[in-house]
Every structure is written in structure tokens, then in C-alpha cells.
Specification:
about 300 residues, alpha+beta, 2 domains, 7-stranded antiparallel sheet, 4-stranded parallel sheet, 6 helices, globular
Length: about 300
């Protein structure tokens, strides 16, 4: 058994009671935004107590599973590209920030690896599924991966490899994955390859630095050790490295999955050089010298990685 690694996948944050119970298979699923305290029409949290209860229950559940299983990898499978969440950005952002933080912090506190599954599956028969998986391109996959790194996640993985059936009221529906039954790549394969290559590039650089925390105006964390302020709510940041380090990294994520955004970033101190990672070539490009400011544009890509050198 030497070298054996234990991989545990836990429920998403908004799992319903039947999913937690584990026996009522027919009613497995997730709660709708209004059921966990979000008013989609107003774009706001309507019941903070309900949200807090959901977060507390999930934190205890995930902690117990990790400690009892002694897993080496702790994975989460929150898939945001479904009708209930695509039509409610406030719920999506709440679930992603909380779910990602809980899993990443738990794994880090115990010296384990946190993993987020990418939604690389598309429901080919949406009429037969209560919450069909929407088609995700590489832009959406990159966006999700960037959020995970902004909240301290370690790695991403593929949800399913092959196209497979599901049952719905005695009818058989189909989920298209990155490979067909003949092991040939489907139309999703190219997007999955792009998304995973992007995530691996970020992971390779971020893995050499200690995660310090996130900066996000919308979550009441307007500054950190590296980032002093962000000019708006369109962008959030994840900090890797301390303010006094000779070199540190900041990953920036766009708030919206499919809408461009950008912000001016005020740094906590002056840096001799600021570089941006080219996400297509993997090369670093100097974008500033003797500066305490970064102008971040996330129109072409949903994320960006900057290296700060004293």
C-alpha cells in the first residue's frame, strides 16, 4: 500500500438534506437560491442567518470527512453553469467564494491538497434533467479555475471523462463529456484541454508561494498584505507571498463569468518591477517599474497573474 493516495470528493455547499442524508437517492440534489437565503431579483442576500447556517453545516461536514478519511486530496464539485445559478449571479458568487474558501482552508490547515472539479460536461438532453449542465467553453473553465486560485485552491480536475447516461422518470438522458464511448474526443475536449492547460500554468507558478488571502470589495475585504485597494467591484484578487518578501504573486479574477471587466489596483508598497504572465506563451512581460499601481484589464481573459519584485 506504499504510495497509495486517498482522494475524497465532498458535496457542494448548497446540497439539499437528501444529499446529506445519503439514503434518499431519488431526491438527491441542490437547494435553489431562495432556499439558502438569496434574493435573485434584488441581487442580494435576503436571509443572512440561513446563509450562515448553510456555511456552518457544510464546514463541519467537510471537516469531519477530511479528518475521518485522512484523505490526501479534498475535492469539491460545485458546478455553476446550470439554470438556477446562471440566472442568479449573487448566488453563484456566494457559493463559489464560500465553498472554495472552506475546502482550500481545510486542506491547507492539515497539509493536504485541495481540488476543484471543472464543469466539462454538457447535458445533451436538457428537457430530461432538472438542472441541466450548460455548455461551457474554455473561457468559463478559465474563469472558474482563476476563482479557485484566488481563494487559495491548489489544483483542478476533470469531472467526467466519458459521455454517459442518466435516468429521469424512466427515460434515459445523456451527458456529453470530453470523450465519447469510442474514446474519441468530443467538441468539449478542446475547451477542456485549454482550461486545464491554463490552470496548470497558474498552478505551476503559484505553487512556489504561500497563499496569504483574498482581496474583494464585495466580500468586505478591501485590502491585504500586497493589494492596498481595488478601484471597483469588477475584480477580486488572491495574494501569494508576504508584503516584505523580495518577490510575490497576485492573481486577479474577473467577477463576471462572461462579461469583461477591469480595475486599477493600488499596491501597499512600491515595487521595482511588476510583470504580467502571458497566459498563451507562459512568458513574463514587464508592465511597470518603480510603481505601486497596476491597471488590470480582464476583457480578453477572465484572469491574470502578476509578479511583484522589490
Amino acid at each position: 500500500m506504499q504510495g497509495l493516495k486517498i482522494f475524497v470528493n465532498v458535496l457542494p455547499l448548497h446540497a439539499n438534506d437528501a444529499s446529506y442524508g445519503g439514503t434518499d437517492i431519488i431526491h438527491f440534489g441542490s437547494r435553489k437560491p431562495e432556499e439558502f437565503g438569496v434574493d435573485c431579483a434584488a441581487g442580494a442576500i435576503a436571509n443572512q442567518a440561513t446563509v450562515d447556517a448553510m456555511v456552518t453545516r457544510y464546514s463541519n461536514y467537510a471537516r469531519n470527512i477530511l479528518d475521518q478519511s485522512r484523505a490526501d486530496y479534498l475535492a469539491m464539485n460545485l458546478y455553476p453553469f446550470v439554470p438556477a445559478l446562471s440566472q442568479c449571479p449573487r448566488a453563484t458568487q456566494l457559493l463559489m467564494s464560500e465553498n472554495m474558501s472552506i475546502i482550500a482552508n481545510l486542506a491547507r490547515s492539515r497539509g493536504r491538497t485541495s481540488v476543484a472539479y471543472l464543469q466539462n460536461v454538457h447535458t445533451a438532453t436538457p428537457a430530461l434533467h432538472p438542472q441541466p449542465f450548460e455548455l461551457t467553453g474554455f473561457g468559463e473553465l478559465r474563469w472558474y479555475a482563476t476563482w479557485f486560485y484566488a481563494f487559495g485552491g491548489d489544483a483542478v480536475a476533470n469531472f467526467a471523462s466519458h459521455t454517459h447516461p442518466f435516468q429521469s422518470d424512466a427515460q434515459t438522458g445523456w451527458q456529453t463529456a470530453i470523450l465519447g464511448y469510442d474514446n474519441r474526443p468530443t467538441a468539449l475536449a478542446e475547451h477542456a484541454l485549454n482550461g486545464n492547460s491554463y490552470a496548470a500554468l497558474l498552478q505551476r507558478h503559484l505553487g512556489a508561494y504561500a497563499y496569504r488571502g483574498f482581496v474583494d470589495n464585495a466580500l468586505g475585504a478591501p485590502s491585504g498584505e500586497l493589494v492596498g485597494w481595488i478601484s471597483n467591484h469588477q475584480v477580486l484578487a488572491g495574494e501569494y507571498g508576504r508584503g516584505g518578501d523580495a518577490q510575490a504573486l497576485v492573481v486577479f479574477a474577473r467577477r463576471a463569468a462572461k462579461t469583461g471587466g477591469g480595475a486599477t489596483i493600488g499596491l501597499q508598497r512600491w515595487y521595482g518591477k511588476v510583470e504580467k504572465l502571458d497566459l498563451w506563451t507562459g512568458a513574463w512581460t514587464t508592465v511597470g517599474t518603480a510603481t505601486n499601481r497596476i491597471d488590470v484589464s480582464l476583457d480578453a481573459d477572465p484572469g491574470a497573474l502578476y509578479r511583484l519584485t522589490r
